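Format notes (please read before filing issues)

Several people have asked whether sequences and structure tokens are stored in separate files. They are not. Every record keeps both together, in the order shown below: the sequence lines, then the token lines. Line labels are part of the format and must not be stripped during preprocessing.
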Amino acid sequence: MTELDVDFVRRQFPPLGNGWIMLENAGGSYVPQSVIDRTAAYMRELQIQPAWDFGPSSEALRRIMEGRRLMAEMINAEPEEVIVGPSTTLNVYLLAQAIGHWFAPGDEIIVTDLDHEANNGAWRRLAQDRNLVLREWKIDPESGELDEAKLDALIGPRTKFLAVSHCSNIVGSIQDIAGIARKIHAAGGHIMVDGVAYAPHRAVDVKALDVDFYAVGLYKVFGPHQALLYGKRELLLEAKGQNHYFIGEDNIPLKLLPGGVNHEFAAGLVGLADYFELVYRHHFRTPENSFTRRVQRVYELFQRHEDKLANRVLDYLKAKPGVRVIGQLSATGRRAPTISFTVAGRNSRELAEALNAEKIAIGFGDFYAKRCIEALGTAEQEGVVRIGLAHYNTLAEVDRTIAALEKLI
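Then the structure lines:
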């Protein structure tokens, strides 16, 4: 079985030579040289208003469109089904505004206390503004897990919408989104999935999941600071435009994006595709027929490597008295390598700052999933300490982090 050549992938990320161990990847990853090159090339060669008929402007538009097309292929969507915007928070807020007319007073929306606020606040606000009934799918306060039996009890004849994460940025558990989507669709509702914490670690296939809407934070998937919103084409056509009045309702990439896309970063997304292609060519000789499939093969390499890293961390933490690991205690198909923990009687800020002093880049707090932190009962400790691993991390870095932790706990 092919294993990830970690030395090779690390050579693609310039900041990895700065002497720090980067463990805050769940908040935002480094970008490879290919993304830097594509972004810089656009700014150096074509920093111009796109879409005019003259040469440089036409080429600018081509590069922007190519970035969007490749990101669509990356998640097995069509180009007209995706919107590239500045952040998941804004993308979801604009979506909520665009589909608010679908709901009547008394209709029910289900949200969780697990999700990042990006896929939480907008729907709670919509429920309040439109006089909808808000149902909350609550996590188990000990395990941090969502129980699908509790969801079954919440779904009723007036259920119209569910907002849920594919993977929690705190707990790390991966939800059975395809199964959950079937339940919501059977009830006549729609589903919006936050895949921001999932997409850095597993391939996303929106068609296989049969979700209505799906969000990806591209800057956590080794790209520039942009975000991707997928929606089924027929649903996006029904959404009300949020852009200028003269932008056509059938212009999906622009109708939900006031002001338009960031040109240089959209062009820079081609560099993210370049990176996946580079990793694929380095590891595999057998050709695949599509970019989507090549991406999936690369993610299989990432997952096997990340599972090893995560299990090394989890094995250490779960053996330490007084340490509470949030979520599952082993890296399996249902756990991402995002590992949050607390130490009895210790403040999470104190622990993170001590690790920072050892040149280990790590964060603490609620990570914009404040409702989850409160439900877990860790708010008084200033939240959790979070180890966010990525495929470019090494076992040596994990061991150095464990050695630093051993001096603290």
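For reference, the curators noted about this record: The chain has two domains: 6-31+292-406, 38-271. The domain at 38-271 is CATH 3.40.640.10 (Aspartate Aminotransferase; domain 2).
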